[in-house]
Structure to design on (104 residues):
C-alpha cells in the first residue's frame, strides 16, 4: 500500500469538503482521520515522503478548521443580525397579516 497516496487522498477529501462548505462530510472525514492514520502507521516508521504528506495533511486540516471557524463566525453574525431585527420583522409580519385581513 502506498501510504503517501493514501495520506494525500485524506487531504483531498478534507480540502474538497472545506472548499464546498460540506460540513457534514468534513466532520466525518476529520473524525475518521485518527483511525485511518493508525491503520496506515501499522507499526512501521514513516518515510521522509510520508512525513511530508502528513505535514501537508496537517496544513489542510488546519485550513479546514479555519474555514469552519470562519463559517461559524458568519453564522453568529447572521444570527445576531436576525436577533437585533426581530421586532421589526414581527411588526412587518403583523402589518402584512392586517393588510391581508382587510382585503378579504
Amino acid at each position: 500500500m502506498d501510504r503517501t497516496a493514501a495520506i494525500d487522498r485524506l487531504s483531498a477529501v478534507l480540502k474538497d469538503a472545506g472548499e464546498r462548505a460540506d460540513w457534514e462530510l468534513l466532520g466525518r472525514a476529520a473524525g475518521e482521520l485518527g483511525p485511518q492514520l493508525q491503520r496506515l502507521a501499522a507499526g512501521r516508521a514513516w518515510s521522509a515522503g510520508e512525513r511530508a504528506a502528513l505535514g501537508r495533511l496537517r496544513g489542510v486540516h488546519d485550513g479546514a478548521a479555519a474555514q469552519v471557524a470562519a463559517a461559524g463566525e458568519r453564522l453568529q453574525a447572521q444570527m445576531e443580525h436576525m436577533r437585533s431585527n426581530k421586532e421589526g420583522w414581527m411588526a412587518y409580519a403583523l402589518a402584512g397579516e392586517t393588510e391581508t385581513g382587510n382585503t378579504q
Observations:
- DSSP finds four helices and no strands in the chain.
- Helices lie at 3-19, 23-41, 48-84, 86-103.
- The two ends are 73 Å apart (CA to CA).
- The mean pLDDT is 90.
